[in-house]
């Protein structure tokens, strides 16, 4: 038989401390990943409003269709941090078509075969940092 009296009950203060520690651990791990992965920084203009979607696992992803300052069009994918519940709302409200953005991240290539059997390939920027950018006035 199991002796349940030996199991300690967690107080609300202990639970709050544990949750705060877990959240801080997530924030620190996220900051470390972002610092390690960044190898490209650029300024661009948004060609469209930001597209937000959720994955089956519950993660939120922002797709930014951009035009670099040299005229090249590209797509940037930004996985929103799970510890920032308001990030999706802030991005949707702030980043609009035509706005300048500063992006930092790394380039990633994806290959797949479409429904017709044709091979496809795309090169995307996996953004680790996204912020509005205003060009300096002269």
Automatic annotation (TrEMBL):
Keywords tagged on the record = DNA-binding
Q: What InterPro entries does this protein's entry cite?
A: NA-bd_OB-fold, Primosome_PriB/ssb
Q: Does the keyword DNA-binding apply?
A: yes
Q: Which domain of life is it from?
A: Bacteria
Give the Pfam families listed for this entry: SSB (PF00436)
Disordered: annotated segments:
1-31
**Is the keyword DNA-binding in the record?**
yes
Q: Name one GO molecular function term.
A: single-stranded DNA binding
Q: Which residues cross the membrane?
A: none
Q: What is this protein called?
A: Uncharacterized protein
Species source reads Aurantiacibacter xanthus
